[in-house]
Amino acid sequence: MEFYQVARIVNTFGIKGQLKLLMDTDFIEERFARDNRLFIMKDGKNIQEVTVENIQEHKGSYLVKFKEFNNINQVESFKGLTLAISAKDQQELEEDAYYHHQIIGLSVYTDQGEKLGTIKEIMALGSNDVWVVKAEKAKQKDILLPFIDDVVKEVNLTEGRVLVELMEGLVDEG
Questions:
Q1: How far is residue 25's CA from residue 30's CA, in Å, rounded to a whole number?
Q2: Which of 89, 116, 150 is the endpoint of a domain?
Q3: Residue 50 and residue 65: Cα distance in Å, rounded?
Q4: Which of the four pLDDT bands, split at 50, 70 and 90, describes residue 60?
Q5: pTM recorded for the entire structure
Q6: Would you say residue 95 lies in a domain?
Q7: Terminal Cα distance for the chain, rounded
């Protein structure tokens, strides 16, 4: 079965088995609805299926309580692990919207045909995501591309490539 990360477990909270999460999904209400099933993952492998009891926002992160755990000792070992959904639980996205796993690994080309590199990470920064591109040229720093219409002109998942129009200052030539 394929899994897709939806959150990172960053700490425990309190003594009743709550976990503090940083979200990697735009579908928080759907993914963490009461009685939804999620998977605790370690190194890309499912180690335990869990059931959401409740979730609440807390100082820029979220606190989740799973039905399977009632004290801190049961959840302490989950710090640093991730939460995922199964591939069959992914929702359809609207046009020109993508899941992170679809974007990471795509090759990035300029509108002039030059290969810039490969997308290695996506940073969610609020107003828009920023795609981190591992530069094709040796010794060149990673390229940070804002996911905005002025920069990203085309995403072709079939061909595994992204076409971009570079704005001044996006690529360090040094």
A1: 10
A2: 89
A3: 10
A4: confident
A5: 0.68
A6: no
A7: 44
